[in-house]
Structure prediction request, 298 residues.
Amino acid sequence: MGNHIYRDLIQNLNVMFFSFGLALLYQFNFIDEFNSMKMMKMPQQFRSLLLLLGLLITLSACSQQSFLEKIVPPQEKAFAEDMFNQLSNKNYAAVEKYLSPELQDESTQSTLIQMAGLFPAEPVKNIKLIAANKSLFKDVVTYDLTFEYEFADQWLMNKIVLSKQADQIRIIGIHVQPIEHSVQALHGFTFAGKSLLHYVVFILAIVIPLFCIYAFILCVRTPMAKRKWVWLIFICFGFMQFSLNWTDGSYAFQMLSFLVLGAGYFQQTVYSPIILQIALPLGAILFVYRRKNLMIKQ
Prediction:
């Protein structure tokens, strides 16, 4: 239960902070102040930017599982599942006839026998498509599919690569791999066994957006002679992105990048690792530091 709570928290960080910011704006009548000529004159480009920002953040919370299913036509998906079914039933001839010539040699059957031995002697409980890629080169379509097969007390991650030209389908890659847990559980959002870096990035992913919202509100309420809208845009972004793979702890740093509100997450599908992202809230820091110098002297 705890894993699902943490996952839901991360998957809704952007929406939560954006909604929180809008709520504060309305609570303290900042929207009316935006429209007041005494506070500032907001360019039309900035209004459009705010609208686009809200739309992008809302879309980021949508599930991508339906998109994953749409990548693969039902015929190709059924064919892939049938090949694994034939393999589990040790019907090697049914699989071999679809193998591309490059995969057929003296070791083909022994390889198929080895993969078939990984299937338990029991019916599969559930089959999930957990990854799919589609590519087109000239008139050849390639599908790279990964399935999770759930049995009573074990799981298999089965990969197959199909090549389709006209109405002819060929298998150009096939692999069966036992895994200890379901893929979704392997990439679950949990603090068990995590390093200090995980905790630091998680805390910053919460603190940085709150600081950006604070600086944004402070900027709205600060009387300034000019360029307030430039500061507001600057405050909304974090720069120099740091990304942490929550599953294995690997990380990456990108100098030339930015994040809305200085934090976010990326997860290709629910079966992929969560990538937690943070960035330096440079605009918010500079505004808070220089606020007194930017204020109109009363």
Q: What stands out?
A: The longest helix spans residues 196-220. Residues 2-62+187-294 form one domain.
